[in-house]
Amino acid sequence: MWQGRKSRWAVAAPLAVGVVVLMAPGTASAEQEPDGAAIERVVSAFAGNAGYPGIAVTITKGNQVRYAGGYGHDSAGAAVTATTPMPIASVSKSFTALAVMQLVEAGEVTLESPVRDYLPDFRIADPRGAQITVRELLNQTSGITDGSFPEKSLPQPDSLAGAVTRARTATLSAEPGTEHRYTNTNYHLAARLVEVVAGEPFTDYLRRHVFEPIGMGATTTINQTPRDLPRDVRKGDVYAYGASIPAAEPKRFVNGSDGVVTTASDLAKWLIVQGNAGVAANGTRLVSATSITAMHTSSDPRWTYGMGWDTDRKGRVNHSGIWFTYTADALLLPGGYGIAVIGNSGIGLANEGITPLADELATLVTGGEPSSGAPVRLIVDLGLAALTLLSLLLGIRNLRRARFWADRFATRPSWRLALRLLPRLTPLALLVALPDLLGRVVGGGRDITFTQLCYYSIALVGWTAVAAVMNAGVLTARVVALSRLRRLAGDASAETTHCCSVAPPLRRRSTAPSLAHEAGHERETSASPASVRE
Fold it and tell me: What gap in Å lies between CA 418 and CA 424, rounded to an integer?
C-alpha cells in the first residue's frame, strides 16, 4: 500500500494551481520565479516519505506571490489545490498577536499593562496572576503552562469568554515574565482581550480588520473542533503502518491559539504583510513596521519567541502549527522569501510537523540542494508492528504454558512468586501513564489525553495495549493455575491424612491369611506388563 502511494506521488501528483505572479505597477522583478517542477519534486518526495496524502504550498518574495500549488488529495479523494481550505493550527497565533498590536497602535492597549486592566473577569487560582501583562501572554512567559493548567485534558469551552472562566483553576509554574513556556491558554486569553477591547466577537474582528482588508476572503477562525469547522473543510488524516486514515479532529477549543482555517493562496497574502513591513500586496497597511519587528523579535535575549513568531539563529522567522489531523508552517527568510505549507496529516510519532518541508523549500529557493530524507514514520510504525506481533506470540505461548509454570514454581514461597509476577503489570502501567509520559518527553511538558494519544500513534498505543493485555492474561492464568495446583495438593494431603487415621483399625481386623493374599496380589499386579506400560 505504501509503495503504491509513493509511486503515485512520484508520477501523478498534479499541479492543481500553477504559479501565480502579481505584477503590481513599479514592483516587477527581473528575478526568475522558483522552478515549479523542482518544487513539485521536493513536495512529492516529502509527502511520500512522511505519509502526507495532500499538501498545499505557497512561496512569496517581497510583495509578490511567486508560487502557489496543491498536491495529492484530501481525505475524500478530492484534489488538494492552492484554494483548498485547511486549518493552519498554531500559525494562527500570529494573527492574534497582530490583532493585539493593532489595538496597541490605536492606543487602546498597552503591552506592559496587566491583563486584568482589560479583562476584569480574569482570575486564576494563584495571586501572582494579577501581575501577568499583555506582553507576557504574547511572549508565552505568563507562567501558565500545560503542567499547571492542562487545557487539552479539561472540559472544552464553547467561547473565548468560557475559556477565561475555565482558566480560573490555573496556577503558575513560575513568576510571570521569568520563563518561556508555550501553551495555548495564553492566546485564548489574548483573543478574548481583543474581543472585549474592540467590542465585537474575535471572529468578526479578524474578518473586518485583517482578512478582508488584505483580500483573505477564504479565511476564517473557529471556536471548537470539529463542531465549528466549515462544511468545505473535510476530515484530516491520522497515520498508521503506512496508511493514512481519515479522521475528524478531537474536540478542542482553538480560537485565538490555533483556530484559523485558510488556503495557501490566502496565506501568501499574509506572508507578504509579514515580509513587507506590515503592508499587503494591495497597499493596505495592517500595522506599522515597528510592530512587525516587535512581533518577530524576542523581548528577552534568553528566548527566541517574539509575539506569535519564533526566530532562529539564522535570522529566519517562523511558526509551526500542529493538529492531530493537520499540520502547517509559515517561514520568512532574511532574503525576502516567504514560504507556507499546509498538510492534511496530523502530528504523530516520527512526524512532529511539516516544518522539514518548509526547510527543504527554503534550501531550494536559496540555491541549495534539498534532501528528502528517509521514510522514518513508516520505519517506526513497522518496528512497532513487529513488537506488537512478538508480544502477541509470546503472550499466547505463555498462556499455553501456565500449567507447566505452576508445576515448576508451586513450592516457592508466595512472596517470591509475587515478585516474579508483578513485572507482568509493567505494560499496563505504561499504557496508563503513556499520555503523561509522552507529553513530558516528546511534547516538552505539553498535556495530551488518551484519545489524542491514539491520534498521535495508533501503532504505539496498539503495541502497548497488546503487551498490557497479554501480560495481564499471563499473570491471571498463572495465578489460577498455581491456586488450582495448590488446592489439589491440599486435597491430596488431607486424603492421605484421613487414610492414615483409619488404617490401624483395619489392620487390627485383618487376619494373617488375608494379608498374605493381598501382598501376593500386589506383587503380581506391580509386575504385570500393563502396569509397566503405565
Answer: 10
CB atoms within 10 A of CB 407: 13
Rounded Cα–Cα distance for residues 24 and 29 (Å):
10
Write out the three cell numbers for 489. Answer: 495438593
Cell 529557493 belongs to 365
Nearest in space to 182 (alpha carbons), one of 95, 306, 316, 332: 306
CB 139 within 8 A of CB 180: yes
What is the DSSP secondary-structure string of 303-344?
A: --B-SS-EE-TTS-EEEEEE-SS-EEEEEE-TTSEEEEEEES
In 3-state terms the chain splits into helix, strand, coil percentages (rounded to 5) of 50, 15, 40
- Alpha-carbon distance 161 to 442, whole Å? 31
User: Residue holding cell 500545560?
Assistant: 146
User: Rounded distance, CA 362 to CA 370, Å?
Assistant: 8
Q: Is 397 exposed, middle or buried (0-12, 13-18, 19+ CB in 10 A)?
A: exposed
pLDDT, tens digit, for every residue of 218-240? 999 999 999 999 988 989 999 99
Distance CA 87, CA 74 (A): 13
pLDDT tens profile 316-338: 999 999 999 999 999 999 989 99
Q: C-alpha angle with apex 351: 350 to 354, nearest 5 degrees?
A: 155
Residue 306, amino acid: G
Q: In the prediction, which pLDDT does 531 show? A: 34
Contact 270, 96 (CB under 8 A): no
Query: DSSP label at 410?
Result: T
Q: Are 111 and 135 in contact (CB under 8 A)?
A: yes
Cell 478531537 found at: 250
Grid coordinates representing 65 are 506571490
Q: How is 280-292 classified by DSSP, letter by letter?
A: -TTS-B-S-HHHH
Q: What is the amino acid identity at position 25?
A: P
Contact between residue 240 and residue 458 where contact means Cβ atoms under 8 Å apart: yes
SS3 of residue 35 by DSSP: coil
Q: Where are the beta strands (DSSP E) in 333-407?
A: 337-343
Instruction: Return the pLDDT at 526.
Output: 35
- Supply the pTM of this predicted model: 0.84
Phi, psi of 446 (to 5 degrees): -75, 155
Helix, strand, or coil here: 63? coil
How far apart are the two ends of the chain, measured CA to CA in Å? 57
Could you tell me the strand order of the sheet in which 86-87 lies? 86-87, 260-262, 220-221
Q: Are strands 54-61 and 337-343 parallel, antiparallel or unpaired?
A: antiparallel
Closest C-alpha among 354, 355, 392 to residue 473? 392
Q: Is 62 left (phi over 0), alpha (psi -120 to 50) or beta?
A: left
What local confidence, expressed as pLDDT, does residue 500 receive? 57
- The pLDDT value recorded for residue 265 is 98
Alpha helices in 410-457 (DSSP H): 414-421, 426-441, 450-456
Locate 89 and state its grid cell.
493550527
456: three-class secondary structure by DSSP: helix
Over residues 275-287, the mean pLDDT reads 97
